[in-house]
Design brief:
With 342 residues, chain A is of the alpha/beta class. Chain A is built from eleven helices and 14 strands. In chain A, strand 4 (80-85) and strand 5 form a beta hairpin. With 286 residues, chain B is mainly α. Classes of the chains: A alpha/beta (342), B mainly alpha (286).
């Protein structure tokens, strides 16, 4: 992966206003004449995507992921802030940027169902201004690359959902874009199709040097694919780090104490150096889950000594102690939950 | 150059679909023919003033006039529909988002799509007009040059109007439903448009002239049905028919004016609303 930045969002804001006529008021349960509501889809969002990088954008429904994708592709104009692709301002050089960006948006058919995959690629290639001499060989190469070679002359309506999604990726790639934006690329696909798409995304970045932005709900996809991850919630950027850093951020801090009986976790959360303490019940019995500070190390160490000592004092039997291995899902839940509480 | 590349893609796409679904194309035409004949029969045997209507159809030229109005109405209905219902269905399927991301721009893509769609509509409508006119015993005056000029002007007139409505659909997707009423109104106007409807007080007359279909229909009927002939009273008081080119007909000039107005207004409104829909975030979505 190179350090060259291909996509940059700089302090981007976007607010959508929804208007409802005769809505039911949630508090009073009475019908109002008119209601106007502002939704912040992007609130001072800034991030960069480097050449050859897979960048993941995570967030719950309505967090603003698709809006970010649409702002990069010029489908939505930011209220303020700037979006750059390959150093060009999307608002000022939209036509040029459309040649650099390929997009697969979530939940759309994209392809023309009465046509075959090959015909679709030639149609969209012409619309995207791909020179005639390059178009047909490139369409064949793409179908070969994505694994639709034997389906190239079958009408799209006869293809499976996974195959249609693969075709949508081919359509996004037909103009040979440097940046590929994939909005929920594996949603609704079976394990095999999802796997195939993940492999192809890897190949596109690692071997072909493209930059890919993936928005997804699937933490496994993000953890497996992405070099860096940004988590957004209600239009606000919660974090943006390398995937391993993000996992590492919490992995050393959560410890599980397996006990013979439940204890009151609040008295543990008062111990200096402990961020949170809670009881969890499983088939193996109750466990006290404690999250400690990372630094300073002495405080962390004291907190970890204090927990078994306090358990001993309360007459509780300690069966085992383990460090919880974090996955992206728990990191995501932790971060979005903290953001909501804030 | 850019427009012709898009046009080429659209021609290929339409041709593939037409060829692949040839049976649907053919049955569509047969159904169209049947519907027209039933409509004519219904018109003749309807209750109110049936006698007058039957006598009207004793003259095949009147039936031809009706058929022509119907076909032009269908044409208007179809062209404006490509910008409204067509746009809505593309937005639903996600094809619109891909078109929005074409470097040629949405307006160029739409223009090409509509032109290709219009050519196939004109060909199938031409066959229908001929078949129905022949069935009712009427006669058409196929004067190709004026007809091509008139159809081109009519097309751009409707496209301009369609761009305006289409722009509104980009921002307010529900406008598409209201547009059906507008299309029906255009259709009705085309069926009943003749020179007499312009005998109104000037504000209403001006409004009728500015509608994209009034003068187009009058001019096309004047050529195809009337054969560009007008009544002239000779010095001896005898009424004779003389040739008077459509290019000297007032409706032709009004057609040019409304064509320019609608093309400029339509494209300007479309660009402004396309830009506005990007701000609202409704471009390409439904």
């Amino acid at each position: 992966m190179s350090e060259e930045v291909l996509v940059e969002l700089r302090h981007v804001h976007k607010k959508f206003t929804t208007r409802h006529v005769l809505p039911v008021d949630e508090e009073t349960r009475k019908r109002r004449l008119f209601k106007k509501r502002d939704v912040h889809a992007a609130n001072d969002i800034s991030f960069t995507i480097r050449r050859g990088e897979i960048f993941g954008l995570l967030g719950p429904n309505g967090a603003g992921k698709t809006t970010a994708v649409k702002m990069i592709s010029g489908l939505v104009r930011p209220d303020s802030g700037t979006v750059f692709v390959n150093g060009l301002d999307v608002e000022k050089k939209r036509r040029q940027i459309l040649r650099l960006v390929g997009v697969v948006l979530e939940g759309t058919r994209t392809s023309l169902w009465p046509l075959t995959p090959l015909e679709n690629l030639i149609y969209y290639g012409t619309l995207k201004d791909v020179p005639g001499a390059l178009l047909r060989p490139r369409a064949h190469d793409l179908l070969d690359f994505i694994g639709l070679k034997d389906k190239k002359n079958i009408q799209v309506r006869r293809l499976s959902r996974g195959q249609k999604q693969k075709l949508a990726i081919c359509i996004a790639l037909i103009a040979d874009p440097q940046v590929l934006l994939l909005d929920e690329p594996t949603t609704g696909l079976d394990v095999l199709s999802g796997r195939a798409i993940k492999d192809k995304v890897m190949e596109m970045t690692r071997e072909q040097g493209r930059s890919v932005l993936v928005t997804t709900h699937d933490m496994h996809v993000a953890q497996e694919l992405c070099d860096r991850i940004a988590i957004i919630n209600n239009g606000e950027m919660i974090t943006c780090r390398r995937t391993d850093e993000l996992l590492d951020l919490f992995s050393e801090q959560v410890f599980v104490f397996k006990l013979n009986q439940s204890v009151d976790p609040t008295e543990f959360s008062l111990i200096p150096g402990i961020i949170s303490a809670q009881m969890e019940e499983s088939s193996e019995g109750p466990s006290l889950v404690v999250q400690v500070v990372r630094e300073p190390e002495t405080l962390r160490s004291e907190a970890l000594y204090a927990v078994p000592s306090r358990l001993w004092q309360s007459g509780c039997l300690l069966h085992a102690v383990s460090q919880r291995q974090q996955n992206l899902e728990s990191v995501f839940l932790h971060l979005t939950d903290s953001a909501v509480k804030r | 150059m850019s427009f012709f590349r898009v046009m080429k893609a659209e021609v290929v796409r339409s041709f593939i679909i037409m060829r692949r679904y040839w049976f649907r194309t053919l049955t569509g035409m047969v159904i169209g023919y049947g519907m027209l004949m039933v409509l004519i029969a219904g018109f003749i045997y309807s209750k109110g003033g049936a006698g007058d209507k039957i006598s009207q159809f004793d003259n095949p030229a009147a039936a031809t006039n009706f058929v022509l109005g119907f076909i032009i109405g269908m044409f208007a209905f179809g062209v404006v529909g490509m910008f409204t219902q067509g746009l809505q269905s593309m937005a639903t399927t996600g094809v619109l988002e891909q078109l929005c991301m074409s470097p040629h721009g949405l307006a160029v893509n739409f223009m090409a799509q509509t032109m290709v769609g219009a050519v196939s509509t004109i060909i199938s409508s031409g066959i229908l007009v001929y078949a129905v006119t022949w069935s009712v015993g009427g006669m058409l005056h196929w004067d190709m040059f004026p007809i091509l000029i008139l159809l081109t002007l009519t097309f751009f007139n409707l496209v301009g109007f369609g761009f305006m409505v289409g722009g509104l659909v980009l921002v307010f997707k529900q406008v598409g439903q209201i547009a059906i009423i507008v299309r029906m109104a255009l259709f009705a106007l085309a069926v009943f448009a003749r020179e007499e409807i312009l005998n109104q007080p000037w504000p209403l007359r001006f409004f009728l002239h500015m509608l994209p279909i009034t003068d187009a229909t009058i001019s096309i009927k004047y050529v195809l049905s009337g054969g560009q002939m007008v009544d002239k009273i000779t010095e001896s008081g005898e009424t004779i028919q003389v040739f008077s080119s459509v290019f000297t007909h007032p409706s032709f000039y009004w057609l040019i004016v409304s064509c320019i107005v609608w093309t400029v207004v339509g494209l300007t409104v479309f660009r402004i609303l396309e830009d506005y829909s990007r701000s609202k975030g409704t471009l390409g979505s439904y």
